[in-house]
Every structure is written in C-alpha cells, then in structure tokens.
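User: Can you fold this complex?
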Amino acid sequence: MSKRAFLGAGVAAGLAAGVAPLKAWSQTPDRKLGYAILGLGYYATKIIMPRFAECEHSKLVALVSGTPEKLKTFGEQYGIPESHRYSYETFDRIVDNPDVDIVYVITPNGLHRTFTERAAKAGKHVMCEKPMATSAADCQAMIAACKKAGRKLMIGYRSRFQAHNIEAIKLIRDGAIGPVRSISTDHGFTIGDPTQWRLKKALSGGGSLMDIGIYSLNAARYLTGEEPVAVNAMESTDRSNPRFKEVEDIINFQLLFPSGATAQCGSAYTANFNRYRVSGPKGWIELDPATSYQGQSMRAALGGPPAPREPAPQAKNQFSAQLDHLSECILTGREPIVSGEEGLKDLRVIEAIYRAAREGRTVKL
Amino acid sequence: MSKRAFLGAGVAAGLAAGVAPLKAWSQTPDRKLGYAILGLGYYATKIIMPRFAECEHSKLVALVSGTPEKLKTFGEQYGIPESHRYSYETFDRIVDNPDVDIVYVITPNGLHRTFTERAAKAGKHVMCEKPMATSAADCQAMIAACKKAGRKLMIGYRSRFQAHNIEAIKLIRDGAIGPVRSISTDHGFTIGDPTQWRLKKALSGGGSLMDIGIYSLNAARYLTGEEPVAVNAMESTDRSNPRFKEVEDIINFQLLFPSGATAQCGSAYTANFNRYRVSGPKGWIELDPATSYQGQSMRAALGGPPAPREPAPQAKNQFSAQLDHLSECILTGREPIVSGEEGLKDLRVIEAIYRAAREGRTVKL
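Assistant: Here's the predicted assembly.
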C-alpha cells in the first residue's frame, strides 16, 4: 500500500461536498493572496492544488518545478501563465512577481530549508510541509531567515484544521475525559518502491519517523497541549531489506509530559495504521483513521459506553482551511497557530527520539 | 469505575448461554476432579465459582477462607459440607481430604507463594491467579515446590481460553497479517478505594502493572509467540495522591522481540481501557475489549477495509475452559499451556520493566 493510497483512503468524491458557507475572521480583508506551489509531486498536485477552489483568501498564481512537462501540464490545467511558471534555477526571479505572496514548499524534506530561505529572501511568506526540515538546526535557520525578511512562516500541519481533530482537542480542553493520562497513537504504512526519495536519508532525513511517525508525535503534543520532558524509543529495522538500507522502519517512542500525561507513539513502514486514543480517568476519545486526507472517524466513551461521535462541522476542509489560515494571518498580522516554532519543537523531539533509540536510554528534554 | 465493573462489563446474563456442547479431549477419562477455592473475594465467588456448572472435568468441592461468614454463606450456596470448609489455619488438613485434587489460589498476590507451597505440600495440584507472585524468585520457588511434590501448577491466564483471543492467535499464526511488526495494547481502569489491598505493596507487589498491565504484557507474548529481548519503560505516578503512596499508577513499556516484532504496552490506574491491535504488512487485528470477563469484540483489516469479525466458537466459556484445562492435564498427564513457567516468564519481564523505568535505560533480557 502506498502512502498516498493509505492516507488518501476515500479521498475521491465529496471532499468539498457539504462544506458549510465559508466564514471569514471578522476583520480579514476581502481579498485573496497568491500562492506559488513549489514542488509538483502527488501531494501538491492531487491533494493541495484542487483545494484552492474552496479558499476564501487564497488563490493559486504560480508554479515551481524542476520538470518542464509538469509546469506545462499543471500550468495549463490551472490557467497559470508562463510568466508565473518557474524552474528551480529561475525560482529566485519570483522576487519580481507581485502576484505571489506565499511560496508553499512541498519538496523532499532535505530541500525544505534551502527553498524556504530562497523564498524568504525573495520577500515571500512561506508555507512549508512537515517535517519542517531534517534537523532542528535547519529549522532554526529557516525561522531566522523568515524573521530577517519580515515574512511569516507556517508548517503544513493540516490536522489542526480538521474537524475531528479540532473536536478531540476541544473535548479534552473542556475536561470531557478528565486530565489526559495516556495517549496511544500509531501511524504507519507499508512502503513500496525502494528507490523513492523517502528511503534516501539525504533527502528524507530519516525513515518512518520523519514521514509518518511525526503525525503520532504532533498529535501527542496538540492533544496534551504540552511539550514532552522525557523520551524513550525503540527501533526495529531489517537492514538487509533493500528498502531500509539508509533509514529506519519501525521506531516506537514514549513521551512523558509535565502534567504526568504519557504517550506511546508508533511509527512504521511495515504496518498500516493511522489512529490515536486519548484516555483519562473520566473517559476516552479515539480517532481511527485520525490524520488521513479524508474519512476520519471518531468514537468516544465519556462516562458511558463507547459510541460514535460526529464533530462540529468546520467551514472548510482541512486543506483549504490550512491555506487560508496563513493568508488570514498575513492579512491581519497574526501568527499562524502552526508557525516555524511548532515545526522546530517537533524536530527537537525527533532528534531526542533518535538519540534515545541509539543510546538505549531515556533522553530528558 | 472499579476493576470488577470494568472487566465485568456485560457479564450479566448469557455467559453460559449459547455455549456449544462440551467437547472433551478424546482420551480424557469421564470424571470430574475436585477443586478447593482458596480466597473468597469477588473474582472467586462472582466470576469463577458459578462457572463450574459448565465444567466437564471439574467440580467445586471445598472452600478456604479467613472469613467464617463467607465459608458459611458460600458453603451453603454451593452445598459444600462443613468438613470441606477450611480456614487459613486449618487449611493444611486438606492433605487428608481425598475429594480435593486441585487448590485454586485467588488471594492477594503477595500470598500466592505461601499458599501454593502449602497446597503442594498437602499433595494437591495448584491453579494460581496471575500475577503468579510478586517476584521471579517466588515464582521459581513455587515451581520447585510443585515439582518436588509431583503436582501440576497452572496460572490463571484465562484469555488463552477465550474465543476472540484464540482466533487472534490463530489468524496471526496462519499469516493473515504477515509477520507481526507492531502491537499496541492498553489495559487499565480508574482505581477507587485507597485502602484496598491492590494499593498496598506488600500484598500486591506493585501497582497497575501487577494488576492489569500484566494483561498487556501477556498478550504481547502470546500474540507474538516470542519472548522479549529488550524492554523500555516510563512511569507516571502522582505520589501525592493517597492511592499511589506505595505503588505506581501508569507504567508504559516497550518490548522488542527476536523476530523484530515490537510492542507498546500501556498499564494504568487512572484510565479505562482494555484493548490490543496487532499489525503487520498485510493487515491488522484488533480486540476491544480484549481481555474482559465478557463482551470481547474483534475487528480486522485483512487485505481490505476494517470489518467486524466473529471468532470460531469455543466449546466452553473462558472460565470453565480454564478450570477444565488443568483437570484434563492432570487426567491425561499433559502440561498446562500456561504452567508455572509461563507465570515466571511474565514476572521476569515485569522485573525488567520496573528496572527500565527506574534506571531510565533499555534493559536487555
């Protein structure tokens, strides 16, 4: 099963169907900022680009790719004139394109830093896919570059804009399960083609943890609203398998939070799951799937037997809401709820997870 | 929620209803061995004793208790003559009672060793509740005592006789999910009364791990069919809470098995869960609840979307099947599938879990 097949289960029809009327922040000016999409892979072209249609404050105005055919195909499909199509060599000329407000970096992880820095230098705000970079040091450099340029930086943590996840966070904050005591979350898929960039350390920065396990980590952080203070980890990788010559397969990790909340997080390239359960003395909330492109499902046991639960509807799907959030932050001078600092926090924990697994000890943060 | 309320969810009517005709091992002699129940608490009197009714090779013939009223009440209820009722002081006289073949020890954990030794010395076979004892050393002593007496020793791992668990093991062994890569399992309940014996270390040997987390550990072992080679653990206990003066609340642990299979196991006294999911490259199997007295439910994703699954029916409920298994082993000269060695293996890992948490390092086994 490919990552796209797994995360995309049920992505077909109806993504935008049933979306309630869009609701703007009250003071947000009634205009759309222009996005350049940098990197025209599957996620950019099949998942993100179609979702500008539901955006209120965002529009697709430019494309950046190393593949001329892709620029032509998607340029024609989305009505992007040749003047707004860039190669990686010509990308820096985007500084002269006033239609572009934001560059959305959707490249392999190892290239996030350089393109973020180049975009900031060109005076553009930046949306960058997760993981933000392949090291905490790179994250810090990206934050500094955007700060120096006076531009905003947001990381593509789309689940923060997804209805079931929003509902889970709200229930927890409202005390529905009492204090969070235990989170169990697993993210993984069976990875295929051994030649893909995800399995090349220079491009990916790591294996399942960088790619899919980061969802377990990020969920544990947003569900508790806390930063972990201690990390354990255990890796299981068959290095004789051609897929895992350079990066890890399974790396499971445990987190301890200041309140006493705990998390057990799974990350795998040889198992298919996408779930979390958050438990406290008064009950639990479960999402399964939890962070997929579509099809989230929630059960909760809140003082009674477990029962399915429908979250409060959100005005926009997670992708459109994510795109618009950065636009709205720019238009109103606010900070994104998932800024570069958020990406850095994940990378700091990720580095601790790798260290804990390597050294066989609890790493304090 | 009390432990009994949680594990017993739905225990009410129908436990024996719909049970298929009992099916004996082909060579098992057609008679019933006599059990003495030692310790007349909730589990013994409400869960175990009523289940002799469905047994084929086991009958209740004697009672042992420190409380005269209980001996009278349950003696009358089950037609046990006064000659077959023992106090802890008179218990050793059971050596002279030929009606008693087996003593089933259902006391607080800290008393398992002494009563097992006394039963063996009286020439009786022993069924002992889990955890087998409060230390691996005690387990070894118990094994030695029964061996010396030429008597069998079995530990009350009832889930091994439960239909959904049997089905999960079979599916895994048949390769339905491919090699086991990841197990996620959580067992816990919100413990109440701070004065109960479970929260007194001398009687319990430890907190949630000894009481309920052992289900997570044992499941990880029977689902993989392997013994762990490395253990990580992380504890979270509010020692200022009157319930947790002596024993731990949450202790989560990670296991690594020789095949590369991994397990993340939760154990808690401040959260309610009872579940496991076993995942491999070809699919997953989930039980939720997994190890309750009643009401197990199974879902599986085996090359398709997740779907509920009904296991093959078992001839007897888990309690009657467990009782009969020891009788049948005695009658036919076989070793129980969950002998004293099985209990010892859990205790060795439990000691490693406590050590890993205390020392903040991976403990190799």
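Confidence is low (pLDDT under 50) at residues 10-24 of chain B. Chain B has two domains: 3-158+319-339, 159-311+346-364.
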